[in-house]
Amino acid sequence: MKKERGITLVALVITVIVLIILAGVTLSTLVGDNGIITKAQEAKQNMANAAGEEDKLIQNLLNEIKGIEAGGGEIEVPSGTIEFGEVTWSNGQAEIVIIANTAGETLQYQVNGTAEKNWQEIRSGEKVTGLHHGDEVHARLWDGSIASVNKSTTIKDEKKPEVKVTVGEVTSNSIAVTVEVKEEESGLVETETYQYYLGEALAGKSTNNSYKYEGLEQEKEYNLVVKVQDKAGNEGTGSATAITKGIPTIESTLSEGKYVWYTDANGTQQKCIVLYGPENEKYSSYGIQIITADTVTDSYTLGSSDFNTSRNIYNSVITTLNAEAEKYRKKDDGIAEVARCVGSVPDNPNYDGAGMHTTQFGGIYSGTLKDTDNNYEADWNQMNSLGIYNIGKSYWLDSRVTDATSIISNFYVRFVNASGNLFYDRLCYVYSGDNEHGESRSNGLRLIFRLKSGIKVTGGDGSEGNPYTLAP
């Protein structure tokens, strides 16, 4: 029993010692040089010091603003007013007046910035020029060290462009317009400046102030609207109305001397000239007839070295040349109803008014060869009146001429030579004593087409450079 009590006492003493040691460590952590309480006190002092410094700085700043300096009085702060006048525009640039009420301070300004080095002096009532939409104009009163007044304004273009639309040429399927715009502020946008509408439907965009609405229906009223936008985003609108024409016909459009396109049976587009028009006194029988401005072929041969062959060609030359002309008429296009060789009778191409040659010579009697005819006269006179007979090439006229003496008789076909002169080429001749001869000759072929009535004129202006285009 005494041994067990001694062990218990020793354990108790050791426990007390351990608790004393732990208490000492805890006190050291709380109140030692690096203890929690010590560090908390230091932090509190640092915050107090910082607050004092901050108060000091704020006070110094207030003193500077109020002009309080050690040993002196309060410095006078500049004071006054600044006003901006109205913005005025011209040729895409703006200007503005700055008015200041000041007692000696300097009025300064700058555009789009407030950097100290960029301030410029200006007198009250003077203008700031060269401004554009969106520019910011800053102004201040400055005494050399401080600004008493700062003011700014933004330049704005708030005016819509004024748009005027004028209708130009009107056809059966197109309307031309020109646009005038008054815009003296920010200026028009540089791409897709003009937007052209048919009613509410956009027809096209362009930088050009002229435009042609195409593909329109005939005899229909259209509302033509043009919109333009300036660089500030303001949109101006102008409009006009126009009624398309009915498709004109050849009777109401073509006149003698005008140029017309005709596509022949070979698919070749022939430039033609109106030879007989509605104004002609014989229009009721001639109709409208157009002549090729050039030959359709430069070499068409008539005659033969064999007398009988050449005689037959000579006798049938009128129908032969007209039959060749018909090969160039496009039968299914609805444009031309007759084709003939120039020099035939305009309203009866195959007419052959010549009788038989009556002079007897060497066994060749009347009834063998045709005599002179005057078929060529109508076409030749009309070509002369229009000045279109000379094309610098020779071409046949569908007409005969003969001459005879007691020795020889000659049988010719008329033609126009390359100098534009009326001439003739011999196909047959007969000497007394039964000497018969045949010859062949070549000239170009120039054709005339008689147009069907009611043909439409769908394009061109009838000039040599822009002939009329026809459609059935």
Describe the structure.
The protein is α+β, with helices and mostly antiparallel strands and 472 residues long. The protein has three domains: 80-154, Immunoglobulin-like (Sandwich), CATH 2.60.40.10; 162-243, Sandwich (Immunoglobulin-like); 251-471, no CATH class. Helices cover 21% and strands 38% of the residues. It has a five-stranded antiparallel sheet. Strands 1, 2, 3 and 6 form a four-stranded antiparallel sheet that branches. A hairpin with a 2-residue loop joins strand 2 and strand 3. The chain is elongated and about 180 Å long. The protein starts with a helix and ends with a strand.
Distance between the termini: 147 Å
Radius of gyration, whole Å = 54 Å
User: Would you report the number of β strands?
Assistant: 28
Count up the domains: 3
Supply the helix-strand structural class.
Answer: alpha+beta
Low-confidence stretches: 55-75
- Characterize the overall form: elongated
Beta-strand percentage? Answer: 35-45%
Largest sheet: 5 strands, antiparallel
| Helix percentage | 10-25%
